[in-house]
Amino acid sequence: MTAPALPVAAPRLLHEPGLSGFLFADPRLAPVWALLRIYVGYEWLMAGWGKVTNPAGVWVGDKAGAAVSGFLTGALAKTDGAHPDVQGWYAWFLQHVALPNAAAFSYVVAYGEVLVGIALILGLFTGIAAFFGGVMNASYLLAGTVSTNPLLFILATWLVLGWRVAGWWGLDRWMLARFGVTPRVNGVTSTVPGPLRGGSPDPQAH
């Protein structure tokens, strides 16, 4: 009779491969991440600022929802054919959820783009900001709008992967340490924490 296999205990820490740690967690690449972050942030800020300050008020103001309604109506027209630009399940969401609440979505889109842009430029909660930016890019793509959305979506995905270092040249350098994400050594934020090097955690880094 074969003895039952013993369960394998989960490790306390899953170590990261050296290449992954270098690309997504090494502060030496912070300048590269900062350029990507600021570029994406600028694109979002300009897009959102144009909506918020639109003199016709079709995004924010008395006519809020007019621009969104037109956009959604155009997206619903792309649902025909064997290979439609807008899939049926997303068309249902646009028709039954987004379109009836176009005014609310208008404010969310306009101010959401501005907030994502500011957060990325400042390097504040970069991973979270990039995630919501990617959600907006995906929403536009699902609605059949290409433009710069594929590029921004790819860059947003990279920023989410590199969230620990993408804001190193920004406010995240202090905010992440404040929340205990990056450790402190003798009261000073460690530049390359032990777990990010792929080795054992530094017992003095807490």
TrEMBL record:
| InterPro entries linked | DoxX
Span-the-membrane segments of this chain are 108-132, 152-171
Q: Is Lipid metabolism tagged as a keyword? A: no
Q: Which UniProt keywords apply?
A: Membrane, Transmembrane, Transmembrane helix
- Main location group: membrane
Give the UniProt subcellular location, in the record's own words.
Answer: Membrane
Cross-referenced Pfam families: DoxX
Membrane protein topology class:
Multi-pass membrane protein
Q: What is this protein called?
A: DoxX family protein
Q: Which organism is it from?
A: Deinococcus oregonensis
